[in-house]
Amino acid sequence: MANGITYQLNMDNSGFNRGLGEARSAVSGFSSLVSPQMMVIAGATAAAAAAVKGFSMAWQETRQAMNEAANRETMETAFIPILGSAKAARERMEELADFAAHTPFQLPGIASASKILETLTDGALSTGDGLRLVGDTASGCNSAIEDMAVTIGRLYSGLDSGRPVGEAMQRMQELGAISPDVRAKLESLQAAGKKGAEVWKVAADELAKFSGGMELQAATWNGKISTLADAWALVRAEFGRPINDALKPLLDASTAQIERLAATARTIGEAIGYGLRYTMEAFQQGEFSGLVANSLKLGFAEGINSFWAGTQGWLSMLGAGLVEAVKTGMMVFDIMSNVSFWSGVGVALLSVLQAAVAGAMGGLSQSMASFLTMIPGAEKYKEFASGLAVEFYKAASQYMTVSETSAQGVLDEYGGAATKRFIETMSNLSTAFERGYNNTPDVWDTTSYREDIKTASDRIVAALAAQDKERAAQAQKEGTKAKREKEDTTPPMRVNWETVFAGSLAKVGGGGYGRMMLSAENVPQKQLAAQKKANDLLEKIHNKLGRNSIAVLG
Measured between alpha carbons, how far is 494 from 526 in angstroms, rounded to an integer? Predict the structure, then answer.
């Protein structure tokens, strides 16, 4: 049984459906039109994103390669003072890099271990079999190779020299590297005065049980990952080394430039600091508003004077320009009236015209030769036309050479004079402007503004100078005081207040200084001053209460 009421509406919705269908068709058409273009845009965007990502990855890899090369250079440089030469340090790093490529340890740890062993064992265990012994022991004890190098290095150094090695043997025993029996044997040998290779052989034989430990660790997953990391680090270092070498001169130049800028920066900083002090002092003296007002007035007046002087300079230059124009016109007239000028120009122009005619005739002859090739039996006429074209072209070339020679002759003869005239004109115009500008008197007198600014500025500068002098004197005083306190090595005297009070009571009571008090010659000034204060206090009490009461105390 259904709940509710069911009903049906009979409505004409054909118009709505028709409009909806048209809208769908339009959207579908727009999609079919735009989709190819959108695909192209999307493809281009994806390609650009991939390119940016690739560039970023390449840059990151380059930076890592440069860092790897720099780290290896640092490790190599650390061996120079120990081994005595850069060549020995480079050979040591090459040996250690090969060692790292076949062991589960990374190059930084191996280099650190070799450096430690070089110092502690005088090179006996820093390479070759000695370093392999340390590495096998570190692998067997699951310890870092540089930590094991410290422990074994101390053990070797002590056993070789006969010094106590209890701490090193205790650490080796904690790691499981040596047994209690071997430790007892080593202690017995040292107690018997044994040292050197005889004693070290006992320890080395014990550590030989870890032989092959690095090979076993290198065969594990972590060992293979470590070997792969060493190989890739070597590739990075070889890639980054030439880049770093190429950039080192740039870094040196940048450092030198920055060092040169330091003095300039300090000067600028001092100027800014003095300017701030000057402004603050101007505010404190109430001179700031007057300085600003006079500076604005002076600037406006100077602008008017400069504009007027510039106007006079331009007017002076205008007169000079008319004179120079007359001179230039006379020079042009002289050139134009010279027969040789027109002769050279005429030859140049005529030669150009002749070259053009000869070129045209050459082209016409060439065309005629091409036409005659199509007529049977006209080969000799075709050869004649071709030869004629060649002659016309040669003539055109000769005419152009004559034209260039004639034009160059005209320039050589008259170009220098024209250039000289131009330079003289510019120089005379500049001199005229400078003379008119500098000889023009000011239309606005700025003397009062300048004097007011100078007077206020002198007061401010004097105040700043006084402050600097006071600071210098204070600094000198503090320096002298510190020096005096440093030189005074006399230990401070502690006042014995019990002795002071007892002596004061004895004095007030009439008994004088008791035996507990020292003589005045031996009593320090600080204690005498305290004694005097106590005496004065007790004297006041004595006067107020009466001598008998105080005498009892005495």
Answer: 9
DSSP 4: S
Separation between Cα atoms, residue 205 and residue 211, nearest integer Å: 10
Residue at token pair 């056993």: 159
The answer to whether residue 516 scores a pLDDT higher than 70 is: no
> Is the pLDDT at 126 greater than 90, yes or no?
no
Share of the chain above pLDDT 90, in %: 4
What does the alpha-carbon distance between residue 291 and residue 510 come to, in Å, rounded to a whole number? 77
Q: Are 97 and 229 in contact (CB under 8 A)?
A: no
353 is written with which tokens?
A: 């015209």
Own/partner contacts of 208-215, CB < 8 Å, gap of 24 or more, are: 208/133, 209/140, 210/136, 210/137, 210/139, 210/140, 210/141, 210/177, 211/133, 211/136, 212/136, 213/135, 213/136, 213/137, 213/138, 213/139, 213/140, 214/103, 214/104, 214/105, 214/132, 214/135, 214/136, 214/139
**Residue in this structure with the two tokens 């600037």, named with its chain if needed:** 299
How many CA atoms are closer than 13 Å to the CA of 403, on its beta-carbon side? 15
Q: How far is residue 106's CA from residue 418's CA, in Å, rounded to a whole number?
A: 80
The alpha-carbon radius of gyration of the chain (Å, integer) is 53
Question: DSSP 3-state assignment of 156?
Answer: helix
CB 159 within 8 A of CB 195: yes
- Considering the chain, what is the average pLDDT of its residues? 74
361-380 tens-digit pLDDT: 777 777 777 776 777 766 76
Query: CA-CA distances (angstroms) from residue 215 to 140, 155, 224, 505?
Result: 11, 25, 10, 92
Under 8 Å CB-to-CB from 442, ≥6 apart: which residues?
305, 308
Q: How far is CA 439 from CA 308, 309, 340, 446, in A?
A: 11, 8, 46, 17
Cα 131 from chain centroid (whole Å): 41
Number of H helices, E strands in the chain: 17, 0
Report which residue type is found at 59: W
The region of weakest confidence among 78-82, 183-187, 222-226 is: 222-226
Residue 128: exposure state from Cβ atoms within 10 A (0-12, 13-18, ≥19):
exposed
pLDDT, one tens digit per residue, over 343-360 is 666 766 777 777 777 777
Structure tokens at 228: 């792969």
- The two tokens of residue 101 are 């490529």
Q: Is the pTM of this model over 0.70?
A: no
Given a contact cutoff of 8 angstroms between Cβ atoms, the answer to whether 309 and 437 are in contact is yes
Structure tokens at 315: 């007017």
Question: What amino acid is encoded at 83 in this protein?
Answer: L
Distance CA 363, CA 386 (A): 10
Helix axes 166-175, 145-161, angle to 10 degrees: 140
